[in-house]
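PROTEIN DATA CARD
Card holder: Adenylosuccinate lyase
Chain length: 460
Origin: Antiquaquibacter oligotrophicus
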Amino acid sequence: MSLPPQPLSPLDGRYRAAVATLGDHLSEAGLNRARVRVEVEWLLYLTDHELFGSQRLDHEQARVLREFAAEFGQREIDRLAELEATTRHDVKAVEYLVREKLAELGLNSVAELTHFAATSEDINNLSYALTIGAAVREVWLPAYRTVIDTLRGLAVEHRDAPMLSRTHGQPATPTTMGKELAVVVYRLERILAQVEATEYLGKFSGASGTFSAHLSAGPELDWPAISQEFVTSLGLTWNPLTTQIESHDWQAELYARISHANRVLHNLCTDVWTYISLGYFRQIPQAGATGSSTMPHKINPIRFENAEANLELSSALLDSLGATLVTSRLQRDLTDSTTQRNVGVALGHSLLALDNIARGLGEISLDQAALDADLDSNWEVLAEAIQTVIRAEVTAGRSSIADPYAVLKELTRGRRVGQPELVEFIDGLDIGDEAKARLRGLTPATYAGLASSLVTYIEH
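Structure generated from the sequence above:
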């Protein structure tokens, strides 16, 4: 027995609640709403300038047309489906829908200015720039900023929480949990600035980017200037040199930046997962939640694992989009038509990951006792400090030790050394008394350098 119609993608099924806001922009309906807006605005531009003998529409007519585009809803979605069933062309169906509205308003006199001198790609490229820009600014970026702000709060909260580092997975010079989280905040904020600075380009120059049809209808007009004024009126950056399509370079740049953000976030997830595994972070039990179907004690770090997988999917799609969209055979092929319809899927997986990360960060608490125990079990990490002080003492003429590094290597490499052994070793060193006192006062927990103060760099 067949199931009733089901969503094929988990983004439209299991995870819909987390990503539904993207659908307002990057669904087929969102694209068609933007297409209607572009068609309406182009018609209004032509009539506002009274081109080809047209008359400027009155305020109420213009308001109704813009409202028609802004309130594009189920009735228009259904009508477009009916029209496209006949036209077998999505943009032509949009043109006919706008013409129907003009007829309803008694504006048949300007109906021929609908889609005037425009190729489908003139409408499409502006519509994609509008929808992708809105999706990034209104949906993805707020979720991204939420993660950054949450991390910033944790970094400041734990700036003084000493922690054993693990370079190559081995005990290393201590840091603080706050400083390590601040590193991620700093990385993410650099990418944030790049994404915020994205230029959303648009073209409006006809079938091969030459204004040929425009010039044949109005040879006296400055069509590049008209095109630039119209494109920028939509809040986009004008691209003067294109083929039939806008070259999609801005999309490749944007997707590379978001993919980069995904990978930094992936690094965060694997690190937090590891800190949970080490016991540095405790997971806060959620009421009613089950960690394992057979082991009642478990709280699995599923938020971070889910985020990892979705970040990988998102980056794979974004990388593919960036690689394929910048190529179009000669003046036009249709590979970008299907490809661009997956932008929402690519951003959806990233948005789902951001939602999981934000939730996951809110469900952990630092176990300082675990961090302290780990530090207290690894006094040998002070070998770096001791040999560095010896080098300084040799340089100052207060020590004659020949090879400080080798001396400490012999004492500590591959061995566990506790506080008594280190104090005894320090007391026997050929160095000044002040240096000895300074080294005796060191503990793994206090050997974190400027870690705490470095968090200042991500405070706003």
